[in-house]
């Protein structure tokens, strides 16, 4: 398991075409990818299982805890991105609720765009 950041303070200001916003790049893939949004309510859990393909979990709001194959949980909050390799055991849980985007693809390389925080 690796932890990255995609929060506003990790982005770059874009002014091209008279634009005024900050972009935090997350991923680029040439192979097909599945993108979904997960809504975990209070005491929600994505049970302990193996990743079928490499998986990137982007925490949008709320907070929770993630773990890999060890029973050591790491707190996650908005702006955190958690990456698990194919076949890696993992779990996500929350006491108060969280919303996250999940990206799954045979070809994910988050370190190409985001800096590694922990993991």
UniProtKB/TrEMBL annotation:
SUPFAM superfamilies named in the record: RmlC-like cupins (SSF51182)
Name this protein carries in UniProt: Cupin
Organism classification: Bacteria, Bacillati, Bacillota, Bacilli, Bacillales
